Amino acid sequence: MTNQGKLLVAIVLAIVGAGAGAYILLSGDRSETPQEDLLQTPEFEEQVPIDESEQEEQMDEEEPMDEEEPAQEEDEPLALITVNYTNSGFAVASISETAGTTVRFTNQSSFNLEVSSDPHPAHTSCPQYNLAVVPPGGEVETVLTLGTCGLHNHLRPANTMTLTGN
């Protein structure tokens, strides 16, 4: 490379570097925080360690917890069904259960599972069952709704099953 070529490369690099530097300086955070506020040290109350006997006394003074079994919350499922997916496809061809039951798809195969509703590839019949991709060893859950829906693995559409919520 000639001296003229080297000089041209150096000038181009200097211009690009100056432009990048200017961009970084000008596009920084433009908050209105005064400089003095940035330099102040926050004040904290002095923290005194509690010795173990005081800590135990404080715990004893707290109200005891109810030891009754908690009532079923509204968000808890009525039941749980696990559908295993293997290298051969879904372990069951059809499930019929009460609507509101949680259905857990467990991927026991060596490839990804993407549960999707029929028809393939539109997945429009039951969009609530168009679930996230599940890697091998992973699982995904959904809640069974009223009606019958055909499902398949979007990544292997020949692997199908049917879900029915009563």
UniProtKB/TrEMBL annotation:
Organism: Candidatus Spechtbacteria bacterium RIFCSPLOWO2_01_FULL_43_12
UniProt feature, compositional bias: Acidic residues: 43-77
InterPro entries the UniProt entry points to: Cupredoxin
Annotated region (Disordered), positions in chain: 32-77
Record protein name field: EfeO-type cupredoxin-like domain-containing protein
